[in-house]
Amino acid sequence: xxxxxxxxxxxxxxxxxxxxxxxxxxxxxxxxxxxxxxxxxxxxxxxxxxxxxxxxxxxxxxxxxxxxxxxxxxxxxxxxxxxxxxxxxxxxxxxxxxxxxxxxxxxxxxxxxxxxxxxxxxxxxxxxxxxxxxxxxxxxxxxxxxxxxxxxxxxxxxxxxxxxxxxxxxxxxxxxxxxxxxxxxxxxxxxxxxxxxxxxxxxxxxxxxxxxxxxxxxxxxxxxxxxxxxxxxxxxxxxxxxxxxxxxxxx
Length: 251
Hints:
Oligomer: single chain
CATH class: Alpha Beta
Helix content: 25-40%
CATH architecture: 3-Layer(aba) Sandwich
Order of helices and strands: EEEHEEEHEEHEHEHEEH
């Protein structure tokens, strides 16, 4: 933990801790992937280490850097506070563009398990982003990065939906009343990190986009329908990870 940050001299209005690059830590370049879920980190570990990527100690998980040229991969980082700590550190190490990969529950009709949701903005019910004041309105994904991702994913025959999401810190306190309300407002899906990640990326001046694989259906007309362990979902997750690893070498 000590290598993640440094203290600054106390001063009125100043923060206590600033993220920084510590001695011996890698210097990142170019685009990279921040993986939210442990499952994707396990999948990535099996492929990137065979390709010669270097493994580094990293809080809250592991960081991999490409053997030649730019490119990096880190995670897992479940939940807004942990995801933001990871993002802050990655930016301090030099990350210039960040793509996050996670899962979401679909609220909107027509958004199905195995589809992709690309968040544009978020309805925030997490507590981290409020500590990063912004003056330009609600944080959003980088438009250019989202456009590139739409093209890359649709060319690979993924069904892609772009729009607002609901970010919550409390997955066990989602209510059917909120599901109905937010769906009526055009919210596509629910997840746990995007609002905070987009806010911090805007605060730090780093382009960020999130790719969310629909893992379950959250709709008032049916019982909750998770697909986390289904073979088809796992196959789709592996294919998506490989596609995004290819994408970061192109941006």
